[in-house]
Design a protein that fits this description.
Elements: H1 4-7, H2 22-45, H3 56-81, H4 90-107, H5 120-124, H6 140-164, H7 169-188, E1 200-201, E2 205-206, E3 209-210, H8 214-240, H9 242-259, H10 264-290, E4 292-293, H11 300-313, H12 319-338, H13 343-357, H14 361-380
Antiparallel strand pairs: 1-4, 2-3
């Protein structure tokens, strides 16, 4: 005799959402085409006197914006999806940049001002040998590994103790800010071996190739754009999987999630470390394009800016923070030329205005406009 339970139909699981809509795939294809074909052709194939020629300044600027957008994605993962506001992500960005900067300093060789195998600032400080933490700085493969290991390890240690202690809300944000500020003060000291106030600069080569050629500049831009697109697709997939649903539950009702038998600690820690890794990669790509890295990258204002990019673009959307990073930094590039003394005031006012009057950011505004357009079209029909 068959039991009623065995005769019941199998439970139908919900269909997982598509990674991207048709319009999303078209937009992504256009972004790849622009980064990998259009920009290189406009910069390298067309002569400087051509009206469509793209100057190298704009290539470097777009590369910087891609690195900033990668940081905004990292912030969106931890703030938009997990509900944890970090005001110290500039630390992980700077750590990745310092790791790459150490490799670039070693690549200078004897072409420095003092013709020594040691970096110029070490010769100036009368150092006789490299400190221990510079041991692997002459290896490109080791540098790539350390770009991930250093920010990831710092984030893992900090996140484990912070999340295990159940530190939340504004207290967590203040602690991240304090940790970043303490690291900045540490890196300002000459005896730490990180160049002190001046940091690292005067880079000449990467993998033995000149870092100032148009071809290398274009390669760095393309790598930054590809890293941004890859991170976007990866996070898009991750946030639509079970992991992403648990992160949203942590953000919306962490106590209920614990009541259901889930431990928030591993999910929060994994999201925190992944966010730090993305910032480290962004810093490593940023440094060879701007030609300098110093402790000011760990400043409080820089970390707040990362949060502003995510807020302006729209938290929890992934595409929104990318747009926010490009929009805010485009405005910053213009305003710092026209009226540089007003930028910080504009930045603070922008953060307050978006929080109060446009909490969903650019992405939310676009959604509302689409709804209004759809409603108007229905009424017209």
């Amino acid at each position: 005799m068959t039991s009623p339970l065995s005769a019941s139909p199998p439970l139908a699981l919900p269909t997982p959402p598509a990674l991207l809509s048709r319009a999303g795939w078209i937009g992504l294809a256009l972004a790849v085409l622009t980064a990998c074909l259009v920009v290189p052709l406009l910069n390298l194939a067309l002569p400087p006197q051509h009206p469509l020629h793209l100057d190298g300044y704009w290539v470097s600027l777009l590369g910087k914006f891609c690195c900033y957008a990668l940081c905004a994605l990292a912030m969106d993962l931890i703030w938009g999806f997990t509900g944890i506001l970090s005001l110290g992500h500039g630390l992980y960005f700077a750590l990745g940049g310092y790791v790459m900067g150490m490799y670039l300093m070693r690549q200078i060789g004897t072409d420095g001002q003092y013709r020594s195998t040691l970096p110029d600032f070490m010769v100036f400080l009368d150092w006789k040998s490299l400190p221990w933490h510079w041991t692997l700085s002459d290896s490109f493969l080791a540098t790539l590994l350390l770009v991930l290991l250093v920010p990831g390890t710092v984030a893992l240690i900090f996140g484990f103790f912070a999340f295990r202690s159940r530190i939340q809300g504004v207290y967590f944000s203040i602690i991240t800010q304090a940790m970043t500020y303490a690291a900045m003060l540490l890196f300002f000291r000459n005896e730490t071996g990180f160049g002190g106030n001046n940091g690292f600069t005067d880079f000449k080569r990467i993998l033995g190739l000149s870092i100032t050629t148009p071809g290398m500049r274009m390669l760095l831009f393309v790598m930054s754009a590809v890293a941004l697109i890859g991170a976007y697709l990866g996070l898009r997939w991750l946030t639509r999987a079970k992991f992403g649903r648990v992160l949203s539950a942590v953000r919306d009702a962490e106590s209920r999630l614990m009541f259901c038998g889930y431990s928030p600690l591993p999910y929060k820690l994994a999201a925190w470390v992944l966010s730090a890794l993305l910032c480290g990669v962004a810093g490593a790509l940023y440094v060879p394009q701007v030609g300098i890295i110093n402790p000011s990258e760990m400043s409080v204002a820089n970390s707040i800016e990362i949060a502003v990019w995510a807020a302006v673009g729209g938290r929890g959307t992934l595409a929104g923070p990318i747009a926010g990073a490009f929009a805010v930094n485009g405005a910053k590039s213009w305003l710092t030329q026209v009226a540089p003394e007003f930028w910080l005031y504009v930045l603070g006012a922008l953060f307050v205005a978006v929080t109060l009057f446009m909490p969903d950011g650019i992405a939310g505004l676009v959604k509302r406009l689409r709804r209004k357009r759809a409603a108007a079209s229905k009424e017209a029909a």
